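Service request form, structural biology core

Requester: graduate student, group of Dr. S.
Request type: structure prediction, single chain
Budget code: on file
Notes: please return the result as structure tokens.

Sequence provided:
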Amino acid sequence: MARLCRQEGIPVTVAPGASAVVTALVLSGMPARRFIFEGFLPTDKKEKAEVLARLEKETRTTVFYEAPHRLTDTLKELLKSAGNRDAACVREITKKYEEVKKDSLENLLAFYGENPPKGEFVVIVGGADAEKLRQEEIEGISRRFKSRLERFEKDAPTMDETTRLQERRALAEMERDVTRRSREAREEFNQRRNEEVLLLQNRAGRLVQDLAKREKFDLVLYEYFYASDRIDLTKRVIDLLDASSDARKNKTAGDETLRDHHHPSSTGGLAV
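Core staff response, request fulfilled:
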């Protein structure tokens, strides 16, 4: 809810509970369905390296505490380990100088390099791209399968019948595994894509309704055989979607990095 409000330029604050973790997480608008809390990064180099290594493939949002004099060093380490992910730095929660800086890790590092941090911070880092990790895993299995198949084709003539049969079964199992993982990845991608399209359609629908009421249209048709440019609303709706995205970006400049959406040309309508 906080993320949607911030996207629409609506100011958000949160009354503190028992923990700054949840308060900062909600206030930041970062994904909060699944998250982990790591506290302060360990001072021991080995322990710190282990925490940062886990972060590389952590798909959940991760929350840290950090002191102002260590913030830039921590951001550097997070950037090196996790890559340039979306993140947020939250400080002075519920106080006069409450601040939420939401951007990429690279841009946050640059900002605090030029603006010395003050106050205690909650640092929130977005999770790794699960789809990318899954694709890398599938590609790794595919490479191992191809390499093993090539060795088998080369060595098969010298294998005894039992060994050859066992290797064929193992290769068949690897191939089924790759096929299964690829199918699951496609299904998950299609589900997420459909969810994003539905959200965009709902947003466009609200804009069409507002436009129709404002200009006193009697009817708006979604599908039609032909319409002149004079009454086709498609371009106007797309322009409104773009304008609303730009307005949100300007409203939260320096605080958030918003992802642009691609708008299907079918979104709009015919005004009558």
